[in-house]
């Protein structure tokens, strides 16, 4: 596999390891913000809506400006939005921020898949995608585990670490690819 394929997979591992706040958003809303379970359900639904539209927009943006800038910008801005999320307590603002945050975060993925296609050596596309998918799954496992530990300490810290890891992933793309 090409060097770039390995680097993209490492970046995806970093990016998805940082996805530690999402599995705990409902607990954040109910236990930290002391909102009813219906509000937690709304936040999770809004996250899904933003993700749906973010993936479509990420594909369109990738077609327009290329995969590298989309990956860098969505990682860094997504990270900043997660940092902001940790400081907002007004529920209506959290709802709007959740849609925006998930939109930006999910716009990363089509650009990353396009980068894999661009960097994969001829005849090794399937292996390149498989490595990336492994990085995604491993990242979710690591992120969920570490996120559980961090959530038991401080929910705000959970979003701050998530945001910081996303920013690091964007900077890795900027510097390494």
Concise synopsis of the structure shown:
With 177 residues, this protein is an all-alpha fold. Helix content is 85%, strand content 0%. The chain is built from seven helices and no strands.
Helix content: over 70%
Please count the beta strands (DSSP E, at least 2 residues each): 0
Q: Strand content of the residues, in percent?
A: under 5%
Give the N-to-C terminal Cα separation. Answer: 15 Å
Uncertain stretches: none
- Backbone structural class: mainly alpha
Rg calculated over all Cα atoms: 16 Å
Kindly report the average pLDDT value. Answer: 92
What is the oligomer described by this structure?
A: single chain
Shape: globular
Structural commentary:
With 177 residues, the protein is mainly alpha-helical. It contains seven helices and no strands. The longest helix has 29 residues, at 37-65. The chain is globular and about 55 Å long.
Features:
177 residues; mainly alpha; 7 helices; 85% helix; globular
Reconstruct the topology from this structure:
Layout: H1 3-17, H2 25-32, H3 37-65, H4 67-85, H5 91-119, H6 125-153, H7 155-176
Helix pairs in contact: 1-5, 1-6, 1-7, 2-3, 3-4, 3-5, 4-5, 4-7, 6-7
């Amino acid at each position: 596999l090409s060097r770039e394929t390995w680097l993209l997979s490492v970046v995806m591992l970093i990016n998805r390891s940082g996805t530690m706040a999402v599995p705990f958003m409902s607990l954040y809303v109910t236990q930290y913000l002391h909102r009813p379970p219906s509000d937690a359900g709304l936040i999770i639904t809004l996250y899904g809506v933003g993700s749906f539209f973010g993936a479509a927009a990420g594909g369109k943006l990738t077609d327009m400006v290329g995969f590298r800038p989309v990956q860098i910008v969505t990682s860094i801005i997504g990270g900043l939005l997660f940092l902001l999320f940790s400081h907002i307590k007004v529920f209506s603002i959290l709802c709007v921020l959740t849609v925006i945050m998930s939109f930006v975060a999910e716009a990363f993925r089509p650009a990353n898949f396009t980068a894999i296609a661009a960097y994969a050596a001829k005849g090794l596309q399937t292996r390149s995608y498989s490595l990336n998918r492994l990085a995604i799954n491993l990242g979710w496992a690591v992120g969920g585990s570490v996120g559980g530990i961090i959530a038991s300490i401080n929910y705000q810290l959970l979003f701050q670490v998530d945001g910081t890891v996303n920013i690091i992933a964007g900077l890795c793309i900027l510097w390494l690819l």
